[in-house]
Amino acid sequence: MTATERERYEELTVEVPPEMKGVRLDKFLGAHPDLEFSRTRAQKLIAEGLVLVDGRVVAGKHKLAGGESVRLSVPPALPTELIGEDIPLDIAYEDDQVVVVNKPAGMVTHPGVGNHTGTLVNALVHRFGQLSIAGGRDRPGIVHRLDKDTTGLLVVARTDAACAFLQKAIQNRDVKRTYLALVWGHLKDEEGVINLPIGRSLRERTRMAVTNTASREAVTGFRVLRRYAALDLLEVTLETGRTHQIRVHFSHMGHPVLGDSEYGGRDKRLKSVFGPDRPLARQLLETISRQALHAQRLEFDHPRSGDRMTFEAPLPEDFRRLLDILEKNSTV
C-alpha cells in the first residue's frame, strides 16, 4: 500500500461508555449508531489490524472494560459494481463448477484499495460472467488468493455450492498447495515445519508479522530441493493460508524470499552479502523484480464428482532465469 492510498483512509475515534463493560469489541462497533457498520465489517477491520483500542491491536472477541478510546482506519468503499475487463487469462482447467487459473506476476487477485480494475476478478467476470458470491460480492469466485507478485495456480468457484465445498476443504486442510521458493542463506534442516502465529505488524500495520497479538495459527512445511551459493531452493507447502504467510515465516527465520522488498529479501539483504557471493546476489536481484515465489502445484477434490484433481504450472520465465544463473555457479 502506498502512502497516497493510506491517506484515503478515514480516521475515526469513538469512546467506550462505562455501560459497555464486558461487551465484545466487534459487537460494540457493529451496534454503534455513529459508525453504521455491520458486525461483519467490524470484524474484517479488526482482523486487518485497522482497529486500535487504547493504541493496541486486539481481537474481535476482546471484551471492553469501559472508558477506552477506539480508533478506526476505514478504507474507502469499493465501487458497487465490478466491471469485467478483457484481460488475457492462462486457464489450466474449467468446467461449470470450478476454474483453475495460472496467475501472472503483477496481477492483484481481487479489487481493493488502489486496485479497483485490472485484477484477476475483473478478468474472470469478463470471461465467465456469473461466479460465486459466497465469499463476498467484491471478490466473486475467490476461494483463496495469491499476492500480487506471486505467480501460479489458484482455484476459482463458479457456484456457491462449489465455493462452500472448497472453503471447507481448505479449512480441513484437504487442499494441497505447493510452492517453489528461493530463499536467502541456508536452512539448518533439510525439511521441517514452521508453526508460528501471524497477525498485523504492530509497527507497520500494512504488513504482517509473527506475533501473539491478534494473530491466527499459521503452519508452513518446507523441504530443501537444492542448495546453491548463498540461496536454497525450497518446496513449500501451506497447511494454513494467512496473508503473506510464506514470506513472513521465512523472513522471521532469517531467510527472506529472494527479491521480496517488503520482508527484507532485496536491498536490505544485499547489504549483508559479502565476498564472492555479492556479484552473484546483485545479478540475481537484477534478474527478478519481485519475490521468487511460485504456486507450482494445486490438488483438491472436485466439488461435484469428488475426484482428486492435480495441476502443475510451469515456472515463469524470470524464475527460470534465476535457476539458470544459479546452476552456472557453484553449489554448496
Secondary structure blueprint with pairings:
Elements: H1 3-7, E1 10-15, H2 25-31, H3 39-47, E2 51-53, E3 56-57, E4 69-74, E5 91-94, E6 98-103, H4 120-128, E7 151-157, H5 160-171, E8 176-184, E9 191-195, E10 198-200, E11 208-210, E12 215-216, E13 219-228, E14 231-238, H6 245-252, H7 267-270, H8 277-287, E15 293-301, E16 308-312, H9 317-327
Parallel strand pairs: 7-15
Antiparallel strand pairs: 1-4, 2-3, 2-4, 5-6, 6-7, 8-14, 8-15, 9-13, 10-11, 10-12, 13-14, 15-16
Structural account:
The protein is α+β, with helices and mostly antiparallel strands. The chain folds into 3 domains: about 70 residues, RNA-binding S4 domain (Structural Genomics Hypothetical 15.5 Kd Protein In mrcA-pckA Intergenic Region, Chain A), CATH 3.10.290.10; about 100 residues, Pseudouridine synthase (2-Layer Sandwich), CATH 3.30.2350.10; about 130 residues, 2-Layer Sandwich (Pseudouridine synthase). Helices cover about 25% and strands about 25% of the residues. The strands form 3 sheets. Strands 5, 6, 7, 8, 9, 13, 14, 15 and 16 form a 9-stranded mixed sheet that branches. A 4-stranded antiparallel sheet has the order 1-4-2-3. Helix 2 packs across helix 3 and helix 8 runs antiparallel to helix 9. It is globular, with a radius of gyration of 21 Å. The N terminus is likely disordered.
